[in-house]
Amino acid sequence: MENLFFLIPALPILGFIALALFGRRMSAGAIRTMGVGSIGFSLLCALASAGQFLNAFQAGRPWVQTLWQWFAVPGLAVSVSLKLDSLSLIMALVVVFVSFLIHVYSAWYMDGDEEYGRFFAWMNLFTGAMLTLVLAGDILLLYLGWEGVGLCSYLLIGFWYKEPANARAAIKAFIVTRVGDTAFLIGLFLIALKTGTLDIAQASTSIGAMKASGLPTLIAMLLLGGAVGKSAQLPLQTWLPDAMAGPTPVSALIHAATMVTAGVYLIARMNAFFVLSPVAMEAVAAIGALTLFLAAVSALFQTDIKRMLAYSTMSQIGYMFLGLGVGAWSASLFHFMTHAFFKALLFMSAGVIIKAMHEEHDIFKIRKKLLSGTAFPVPPIAFWSFLTGGAALAALPFITSGAYSKDMIISGAWTSGHVWVWALALAGSFLTGLYTFRVFFTVFAGTGQSVYSFGGKRNLLVLIPLAVLSVFSVVAGYIKSNIIPFLGMVLPAVAPVKGEPFIVYIAPMLLPLIGIALAWLLYSPRAKATALKAWAEAAPLSGFFLRGWDFDRLYDFLIIRPYKFAGRLIQTDPVDLIYSLIAVISGLFHFVLGTSQTGKIRLYAALIGIGTAIIITWAVLF
Amino acid sequence: MTTSFYLAAAVALASTLMVITRARIIHALLYFIISLFSVSIMFFAAGAPFAAALEVIIYAGAIMVLFLFIIMILNLGAEAAAQERQWLTPGIWLGPSMLALILIADLAFLISRGGGYANGLYAVTVQPKDVGIALYGPYLLGVELASLLLLAGLIGALHLARRNVPEEGEDGTGIN
Amino acid sequence: MAPVSIDNGLMVAWALFVLGFIGVLVRRDLVFVLMSIEVMLNAAGLAFILAGAKWGKPDGQVMFIFILATAAAEVALGLGLVLRFHHKFKTLDTDAASKMRG
Q1: Which of A30, A55, A392, B161 is the most buried (most CB within 10 A)?
Q2: What is the pLDDT of residue A165?
Q3: Closest Cβ–Cβ partner in C28, C34, C80 for B157
Q4: Cα torsion angle, B137, B139, B141, B143, sign
Q5: B140 lies in the same domain as B72
């Protein structure tokens, strides 16, 4: 497999090409087979590669495959090369595995949509671009995948483009991430300029020699800018909640497998630059901590089930950034993995519920419909999946995978000495339990369960992904002791600066439980603390938190309005006035000369005569 | 000689005046031939017999015949004459005549200032031989150019007179 | 008798030229216009001949010959155009061809 792992990104891209070219003429069944099959074969390739890679693992040697030389100019040669090491292997495995399950689920979810083929074409391209990003051995190829992911997110968020709001959300996602992409691109240019190579390994080696200069910090900050945009962290996080406009499988794909985790991967991949710059590391940790807290508070006030999940993703990515920033590299990537499982699970079960409720997103209305029985009954699998995913998100200790990874990050924050970051992470941990189970109790508590029929054999298309991901959401935590050293092969380890007292060890396990208990008190049918709940709902700041701390308004005020104002100022193109003046003068001459063109020969002759008379008179007199 | 010159000049002016005032082309043409003849006499009086001969042969003989052909081909009759007479109102004459007066005044003024001329013509006859030597000596290039001009005129006239040239214009391609 | 004054001769040439020019301006019949142009050319020729005679040189006559050639070419083309013009507009009024305005 060592020479064939390029098939992992190649197969989805081939699937995209086939669907894009022939999708209109294919039957729904063929599209389904093609769309899901390409990812399925890619998954098989990834598994085979992983098997062989692990067998030869003792050597600790990454697989590098140079496909062809992209271009070579004096001072810079860029090749299309893929690299498989423990980091990209884990990442690619998770991406392709979760993508495969989401594709299977999409086959059911999108069934009957008039643009079934287009949907699968873009989903395949999305996955292919993400796998290119992950497996790239060259920063430029990574950037290609990076932009491919951005493009696909735009296409898929605006998939139902006939609704103007969806198109707006797509454009917003595209433009906001573009701000970060620009920073990334400048960083890329700097790397090429200063190190003379874009190969990740070589660039990482040569940057070590420039430790003393400010260059690593500058590049790391620029890369961080890119990561922040893609991963929806402060201050470029505003696009993510609106990205819920896309179909639910797209949300699952963006949040679990592709897109938002790209930023985490970028920082992990370029760790050589960040390790050299304590400032950048602190920035990463601070951004992560602030984002996780802000997003958790916002999630607490959402009434739209998908927006709640969106803020929770933001919050969880914040944990990953925090982990990267405090030096818990492996823990962050581990959290990425567990998060991919449970977040995909949550989105897919939420999708089942939403579809059953006729596209109803509001949790209170969903509850009302469930109680009144006007909706389709919710299938037990959705209930159990949402419970499992929610428990993992809330990091219920010992049982769920989320607890293992998140606790590692939090303890990493403590042992590396970032106390206030640690405090924010703990607060977020408490809030996560609260907001997750607020939604869960609001929707399900006391509604009973009934059986939901999917009709026909496509039942399995929902059942299998949800069941598999439920299992993984639980068991993924148990391979912690295997996966951390494995990731440690490529990611740096940071020695703890202080010990971990028992209270610090136990706090991240207790706080989610407290959060869940509080959620039960506030939102269960037999809620005791109704007064507190009423206060929270009516709090003057609830609208502020609901709108995600009003960052949209802030940007509207700071950027969009001045920009529009400037636009209005130069709408009439003041500089063009000079050129318009030339046009006006020319027009005037045209008018004068054109009027003289009467077509009457005798007039012309008379004019010649007058001219002659004038010239001669002038010559005679002067 | 002097008398004949002034006499011819008087005839030339009178006949030319008749040319531009006639309503019928054929009348104008006849007056024009008279005018050419009188100019020819003036040439002769000024000591240019070769030019006088050319004036009669080429101008009066050839070019005027061309006009005659055109008049015959177009068969311009009483109708056109009536139309032209209608157009020739005194108002029409006024402007150009004023213009002409200005030009004449200019000339008179110029001449009154002397202009550095000696006041008479030499009574020397320039022989055709001298003209020929000058033509094929210093003016050779001019002769070549004149021949090219005539060739162009020949080809142009041939093209314009062709009957089977598709009529342009209605669809906006030609003279319109 | 006094020799012919060059001033008087040039005066005659100018008078002829001006008559031709007036003809061009006044007449609307295309053939008349052409004929008036011939008058003007002829007047120019007269001026050249007189000037040549003034100095007793052949150059004036050479110029007259060139004018003659020009006049011949001009008449050949002009009359060809007259034919086309009449064919197209069914008249010889020059103002009929004023459609080509700027």
Answers
A1: A392
A2: 83
A3: C80
A4: negative
A5: no
Token digits of residue A398: 């010992």
3-state secondary structure (DSSP) of residue A497? coil
With a CB cutoff of 8 Å and minimum separation 6, the contacts of A395 are A402, A403, A406, A407, A429, A432, A433, A508, A512
Identify whether residues B74 and B141 lie together within a single domain. no
Question: Crossing angle of helices C59-89/B140-160, nearest 10°?
Answer: 10
Q: What is the mean pLDDT of residues A368-389?
A: 72
**By three-state DSSP, how is residue B136 classified?**
coil
pLDDT tens, A516-572? 888 777 777 666 656 666 666 666 667 777 777 777 788 888 888 888 888 888 887
Q: Which domain holds residue A586?
A: 572-621
Sign of the alpha-carbon torsion through B139, B140, B144, B150:
positive
Q: Is residue C28 part of a domain?
A: yes
DSSP code per residue over A10-72: HHHHHHHHHHHHHGGGS-HHHHHHHHHHHHHHHHHHHHHHHHHHHHTGGG-PPEEEEEEEEEE
Nearest CA in chain B to C66: B146
Structure tokens at A275: 């390790």
Domain that holds residue C72: 10-90
User: How many domains is chain B partitioned into structurally?
Assistant: 2
Does residue A203 lie in a domain region? no
Residues 6+ apart with CB under 8 A from A431: A293, A296, A297, A299, A300, A315, A515
| Predicted pLDDT at A107 | 83
How is residue B102 written in tokens? Answer: 């200005």
Task: Report how many domains make up chain A.
Answer: 4
Q: What is the DSSP string of B16-27?
A: HHHHHH-SSHHH
Does residue C41 fall inside a structural domain? yes
User: Would you state the pLDDT for residue A455?
Assistant: 45
Whether residues A610 and B99 touch (CB distance < 8 A) is answered with yes
Separation CA A606–CA A11 (nearest Å): 83
Pairwise CB contact (< 8 Å): A599 & C101: yes
- Nearest-Cα distance to chain A for C101, in Å, is 5
Q: What is the CATH number of the domain that holds C39?
A: 1.10.287.3510
In sequence order, what E strands does A169-286 have?
A: none
Is position C78 within any domain?
yes
pLDDT at A198 exceeding the cut of 90: no
The minimal CB distance from A599 to the residues C28, C33, C100 is found for C100
Q: Which of A538, A561, A584 is the last residue of a domain?
A: A538
What does the alpha-carbon distance between residue C52 and residue B122 come to, in Å, rounded to a whole number? 10
Same domain, A62 and A112: yes
Counting one residue from chain A and one from chain B, the pairs whose CB atoms sit within 8 A come to 19
Which tokens sit at B45? 């009086």
Determine which of C14, C17, C24, C39 to mutate to test the interface with A (most A C-beta atoms within 10 Å): C24
Residue C57 within a domain: yes
Q: Does A601 sit within 8 Å of C97, measured CB to CB? A: yes
Q: What ipTM was predicted for this assembly?
A: 0.87
What is the least distance, in Å, from the CA of A589 to any CA of chain C? 12
Burial class of residue B30, CB neighbours in 10 A (0-12, 13-18, 19+):
middle
Out of A67-81, A160-174, A269-283, B82-96, pick the least confident.
Answer: B82-96
A110-161 confidence digits (pLDDT tens): 877 777 888 888 888 988 888 888 888 888 888 988 888 888 888 888 888 8
Question: C72: which chain B residues are within 8 Å (Cβ-Cβ)?
Answer: 58, 62-63, 150, 153
Distance of residue B69 Cα from the nearest chain C Cα, in angstroms: 9
